[in-house]
Design a protein that fits this description.
This protein has 8 helices and 5 strands. The protein is α/β, with parallel strands linked by helices and 213 residues long. A 5-stranded parallel beta sheet has the order 2-3-1-4-5, sandwiched between helices. Strand 4, helix 7 and strand 5 form a beta-alpha-beta unit. Helix 1 packs parallel to helix 4, helix 2 packs across helix 8 and helix 4 packs antiparallel against helix 5.
């Protein structure tokens, strides 16, 4: 599969923005394990006035369920991953330029990791090279005490943890610094994210334990 399958227009738009205004350097990814507190953290960052882009997967599931579609993780995971890629590309090209941080609940990289894992199509390197985010990425580690299934999240904790470790390997392989979110309250987590983005830490969390305390 080639990048053009998902639309050359989105690719060129983002590339042009990256060169002209540097806005993609303000695109910050909050990813990691399902049920690890990402949505709660992003809600807190939103309350502080930052732009937050909702997770593509949740939007796709709601739309597919409402329309009787089959691009659902528990029906056709490959189709779901392709939709997630298309949605993530659209999010990047439609997000207004801003000098402030813009936080993404998962990213194009997450969707590419999923599709490549399922189909072995070599999409990760190409997307990772041409569609960059801020070099520091934050991952929510597995947090069993928080994990709950619902109408839109039906996979088991084991599936969520396996996905987490794929992401934990993928982001550094693309040159990102990975920081594991501490298991603390949401206010402290938000402070950690904003402080890390502004500071020059001496140790990348990519060298920290994946199962951070």
């Amino acid at each position: 599969m080639h990048l053009d399958t998902f639309g050359r227009e989105a690719t060129s738009d983002v590339a042009a923005r990256s060169e002209s205004d540097g806005s993609v350097n303000r695109f910050v990814v909050i990813s990691g394990c399902s049920g690890g507190g990402k949505s709660t953290l992003l809600a807190e960052l939103g309350r502080r006035g930052h732009t937050v882009v909702e997770e593509p997967g949740r939007r796709i599931v709601v739309e597919e369920m409402n329309n009787g579609g089959s691009a659902l993780p528990w029906v056709d995971m490959a189709a779901f991953a392709r939709r997630a890629i298309t949605t993530a590309l659209a999010d990047r090209s439609s997000t207004p330029a801003s000098g402030d941080w813009m936080f993404f609940d998962r990213s194009l990289i997450d969707a590419a990791v999923a599709l490549q894992h399922l189909t072995r199509e070599p999409v990760l390197e190409e997307f990772g090279r041409t569609h960059r985010y801020h070099r520091r990425v934050f991952l929510a580690p597995p947090w069993p005490e928080l994990y709950l299934t619902d109408r839109e999240r039906r996979h088991s904790p084991a599936v969520a943890v396996a996905e987490y470790y794929r992401l934990f390997k993928a982001y550094p392989s693309l040159g990102y610094e990975v920081f594991i979110l501490p298991k603390v309250g949401v206010v402290e987590r938000a402070d950690f994210v904003l402080r890390t983005l502004e500071e020059q830490p001496s140790l990348s969390a990519a060298s920290a334990k994946a199962d951070s305390n």
